[in-house]
Amino acid sequence: MDLKLNSYPVPSDYFGVLWGLSGVEDLLILEHGSTGTCSYNVVNYMIMNKQSPKGKLFSSGMDEDDVVMGREEKIVEAVKELDQTYHPQIIALVATGVTSVIGLDLEGIIEEIQPQTKAKLLSFCHGGFAGDYTLGIKEVFRTLVDNVVKEPQAGSPFLVNIIGPTIDSFNNVSDLAELKRMLKLLGAEVNTVFTNHTDVEEIENMTSASLNLVTRDIGLEAANILKERFGIPYIYGLPFGVRGTVEWLKDVAEKLNLNLDRKALAFELERYGFSILELTTHLQSIDHLRAVISCPYDYALGLTKFMQKEWGIDPSLVVLPNIPDDPEFREEFSRLGLSDVLIEPDTATLEEVMARIDPQLIFGNSYDLHIAKKVPIKMHAAFPAFDYVYRFDGTPFVGFRGHAYLTQTFVNLLNQNPEVFRN
Amino acid sequence: MKLDDISLKGKCLRLSEVVEGVALPKTANAQYPGAPCAFRFVAGIIPLIKNSYGLLLGPAICLYNAKLTSNIRSLTSDPRPNNLLFLTYSQDDVIFGFHEKVREAILEVDHKYHPEVLFLVTTCLQEIVGEDFDASIEAIQTEVKARLLVIHTDNFTCEDATPGIENVFISLSELMEPQKVEKNSVNLLGLWTPMARNTELSRLLESAGIKIKNVIPSYCTPKDLTCAPGVSLNIALDRFALKLAEKMNEEFGTEYVYCERPYQPDSTEHWYQKMANALEIDLDTEIKELRRETEELMYQAKGRFSGKSCAISGNPGRTFDLACLLVHLGLEPRVIMLHQMFPGDLSDAKRLLAMGADPLIFRGDNSLQTEKLLSTLKPDICIGHMDSRVLAHLGIESCVLFSSNFKLGFEATNEVLRLLIKGPASFGALKYKEKLLANRVI
Fold first, then answer.
1. Which value does ipTM take for this structure?
2. CA gyration radius for chain A?
3. Contact check, Cβ <8 Å, A36/B29
4. Which residue of B has its CA nearest to A42?
5. Residues 13-32 of B with CB under 8 A from A
6. What percent of chain B is modeled with pLDDT above 90?
7. Can you state the angle between helices A399-416 and A241-256, rounded to 10 degrees?
8. A13-147: CATH topology
9. Which of A319, B87, B118, B139 has a CA that sits 20 to 30 A from residue B182's CA?
10. pLDDT at B314
11. Of B1, B2, B30, the CB nearest to A30
12. Where are chain A's structural domains?
């Protein structure tokens, strides 16, 4: 039994629903539960880059009597107040554990009050019992695609949607800035980031885009629905390293019938494409380093390729927090020569494997880095990152600037830990 | 979101209109963040008991947030030991029962970590489902070495965290056993700080020959707690700990005095006198000297605040006594954020009214309504916990009294004065930025 002393209880689908919805600016979340649940959420938003759910998340303030009597007046009154006070486009009613257990029918409530409510009402009924947070994010994506996205209107040939980043995505500020910059190099524009700093109008207009760029496996389902329903193609994956970025740009350019300007590419490479060999000496050999990557699938895959192709290091182990939605994930790692992929290991297993590998380098979340106390080179690269802020937009992992940032940071960490060159 | 449409009508009362023991009017139907639940506080208290572990039993909603809270705390000046374990309550457990899983977890914790005490903390969900934990724990107790203590956080039975916190204190009494009473010895109940033995109160009592046997719950062991009834007096410092003092009095005959954290020099002197009388010691000389120092600081501070107004929010101890102190400094309290008036508040509130202050009393548990009120009242300074950026945006000075919570007696008042004068580091820079943004002059 993994009782999570040095690890963390996996956030449930309830959290995924909140995080997936929180990036939609004219949408309000009303959870039906005690204020204690809502109040406690201040904490989990805080560890995601010091964000706050203030003005976004509300509680109906359910109490013991409401549970016993099965009363729904409080949520009805709260919806009315939110609708009339803040005039949001959407109010999402979210069940908590208690609502789910007593079987309160949120959809029934919506049917009853929608006619008197200006905002569109959506319900999320699982209350944290469906599974982990990725299921909640997927539920949000699916619900928004089904209920908000409009039929195609006049589209723009160079307009894209980015699907996947939500407020919990590690390093999203810098990575999104870099992705948008990369697209600008091609002459493409972003309609919406689904769902990060977006709004209902942008989501409604998703069908005006010619291409969807899926950055996270949990966005695949929504991208597939959009492809089947509206014929919008998608490209899946993140651009890591110089090689990965050039390939990604080529793919996007091809799908949009655009060309990557050679001059612009040369400028980028001169400025950000420095190789690790240019920053180290011959006595600073790194190909013997043992590395562990513990990140969600898309980062794990991207960083593995990056380390192999840009730094010449073969990661010893990849740890994934859950089974990826990409059905080919095992083959992907296998093609890279990586057979050692651990999925959601318990703390004891992780400690044991780490002791066996004895890595000099780890990419992971705050808990991984805590377990890996003795590993000299540690880099935050995953959620949850309770002791790490990534609010500045100049620290991308992806794109050309991501290549430069990671390589420079790695070299600086090597120089701070020169013993890694000796053993 | 625009705040302008929030109506505050009917949500504010004048102090002179407030009825003791009655919750203040709710400020919104859709609340954020709302009153915190006891689970959060209980998870914060358990690490203070040495040689113990806490097994937190609940849905991932509660457990994930509890873990993060403890992680965030680990990065502060007051970290708590990592002794919390988490067992997730799933839908299957709701349907098929949680007992067996809990039993296995208890056996594993007992075997692996050898705690002297294992706290089993439940959330409102199990309580709604209605599993009888206490009975099953009694059965498991015979199989393990650790003493098992169940804490029901009772989140749904009250509008705030009080019952759950009181339940922790009361559970500690279950570890206690009758003892031979040692003369001139005390327990301090309700002091939550690693520096508990280094407070002015501790120093003063010790200088008068009083032995402080335990500070509960601050880093005492289960053995300390077993022996806790062996003191001549319990000093209960907050209303949560008062329950434990009452319980110990009932079960072991331990005398107690209730001395809630004061702020004014007069009140602090009476606070010390109350303890001195109960202990039959003389602290007059020390009190006089300490009081003189505080009054000197107050005199120096007075000019700075004369004619200014303030809002008071979320400070421990006697809130209205703090308000009186601020009036003495020349500040006009325009609003006090409060959930409800407790019986202990009454005499301080009367004193404040007698000083000519009749501030608004407002439930501060809804941020947007609170911010709307502050933007309407425009006090010069906000004393307590508030969003720094909002205050900077509104041009209101910020004063966070957090570090004074770790002090007691005149030194706590001195710290309040220091913080009032100094303000939080870099708040000026935040204000500068917000002013530029508000004036659109960039």
1. 0.95
2. 23
3. no
4. B33
5. 26, 28-32
6. 81
7. 170
8. Rossmann fold (3.40.50)
9. B118
10. 83
11. B30
12. 13-147, 159-260, 272-421
